[in-house]
Amino acid sequence: MTRIVVDPDSGVASWRQVRDQLVHLIRVGELPVGSQLPSIRQLARDLGLSVGTVARVYRELETAGALHTARRNGTVVAAVPSADTDVAMALAKAAADYVTSAKALGADRQDAVQAVLHAYQ
Hints:
Strand content: 5-15%
Distance between the termini: 46 Å
Number of domains: 2
Number of helices: 5
CATH class of the largest domain: Mainly Alpha
Helix content: 55-70%
CATH architecture of the largest domain: Orthogonal Bundle
Order of helices and strands: HHHEEHH
CATH superfamily of the largest domain: Winged helix-like DNA-binding domain superfamily/Winged helix DNA-binding domain
Structural class: mainly alpha
Radius of gyration: 16 Å
Strand order of the largest sheet: 1-2
Shape: globular
Number of strands: 2
């Protein structure tokens, strides 16, 4: 795999740097569909990042459909991310943040969903 570089002085979060570089490598064909990625632990070790940081990247890219993880085969490139992938990942993050806030407020699922529907009106 082409080297991913994390610049701690860039002002961009480490997870975002890794995600953006992986998306770029997939889009330009350096990581074609079917390519196996390093394990979360291995990539975290190679980049000097926490396992949680790399897990977040893999999880977001899997949610967006760009990666697929299977126990036997590890994590592989599943599809070339489109521009819509960025929107999907941003929405997934916003939704996760909202759920965390709603739970902290003691709201149940139905109340949280109703609040979103009301906000859209």
